Structure formats: C-alpha cells, structure tokens
C-alpha cells in the first residue's frame, strides 16, 4: 500500500499532522523534507522560558511535485504552541519561499502551498517572530509574481494575527467548514473589547463571523471544501492548474477599505451584515 493510499483511507485532512498533510498533497514518492527534525534546529528561546521546544519548531518544509510540477509545501503544526510562528519556524518558511522564487528566476517553475494552522506570532519570541512573519509576507509577494501561492486553512486552530495577513497575500485561499480566518483571535478581541462585544466561548457566533463558510460567502477566500483529503487534493490541483489569478486579492485594497468604511461600528456586527459588506462590484 502506498503512502498516498494509506492517507486517503483516513479521509479527514484536519486530523492529519502537518507532515502527513504535506505528504498527502504531494505526488506519491516525491515528498522530501528540508531541515527535518533530525537537524535539531530548535528555538533557542523556549527552553529559557520553561517551554519544551520541538525539533522542527512546528514548521514542516517539503519539496516534491503535484501532478509532476515542482512545489514547495510549508505546513504549520497547529498542535505545537498553537501553531505560533517563532524565529526558527518563520525563517524556515520564509527561506523556502525565497528559494522557490529563485528557482523560478532560474527557469524552474516552482509553486507553493501553505498549510496554515496558526495563531500568529509566538508571544515568547515577540519581535523575532514578527520579523520572521514580515519576511514571509515579502517572500509570498515575490513568489506569486511567477507561480500561484495557495493557502489552505483546514482545522479549528484557524489562521490569525500576522499569518492571516500572509493568508490574504496568497494567490488563492482554500478553507473548510472547521476553518477560521481573522486578524485578531476571539480571546484577544474579548480581552480588548469585552465579553459583551465578543464572547470567545460562543463557538456558533465565532464561526458565523470568521468560519470558513462565512469567509467563502463573503468572497474573502476562493474555495470552500469538505474536510476530506481527496477534496482538498482536487481543489489544490485545480488552482495550480489555473495558474496565477488575473488580479491578486490584496491589490483590491481600495475597494475593501471603501466597503469597510460603510460598516456601522456602533452596533455589534451580524453575519448577514458581514456578507452584505463584501457584496458588489469588486473590479
């Protein structure tokens, strides 16, 4: 039984770890991990603060092919420190994207898939993590000039903070019902604005505003798929085959700012109002 066949029998993409997710998307036998756990490249800061580090710092970098085409996959392990980005993991991700862009300049058409399960910057590494995320942003913008950069947000960890900006910079975004996507996480909003404004324990309310289905209906992501390995594989394949979009979502910032300026912030936002805010001509 091949690796791909074994993974497909599990069906759920969300239940896979970062390394398994990367392997599931690549052509069978093409998975090659870069800076794997045996390199022992761990965060130098976590142990000093009483946190047990992880040998890959929660980021898996894999090269391989999808339908025979070169691809680099950056997969974040949401189970390690909430998928937070620190100095080492962020450098791995930024470096991989930078090398992919360099491959394109050398005539090797390498695309990228980002498996985003992250709360954003790792608080224990603060400015170092923020600097790494900024490098990731720059690398995405560079690479997407040549080949699509596809972001996938699948699990309940979601994608928040500076890494939600990375998601917004992707050429395409794929989400599931379980996914969440937003700049600030629910607990941060509750802490700053109060429970009356945003109850972080009200899961139906949270998913109704930042969940995958809502983000798709609002036009902020490109595909809404079931939590199924085959479905996500097929969607990623379709977007890679589609190539670069005619216009990057992030280039339409003026349109989004104009729509947001019309939102009444004196009232608690409702899901229907969120969808309405993003309806209309997006040219």
TrEMBL record:
SUPFAM superfamilies documented for this protein: ClpP/crotonase (SSF52096)
TM regions (residue ranges): 149-174
Superkingdom field: Bacteria
Enzyme class per UniProt: lyase
Chain ranges of the CoA carboxyltransferase N-terminal domain: 1-254
InterPro entries cross-referenced by the UniProt entry: AcCoA_carboxyl_beta, ClpP/crotonase-like_dom_sf, COA_CT_N, Malonate_beta
Keyword Lyase found: yes
NCBIfam families in the record: malonate_beta, PRK07189.1
The name this protein goes by in its record: Biotin-independent malonate decarboxylase subunit beta
Gene source species: Pseudomonas petrae
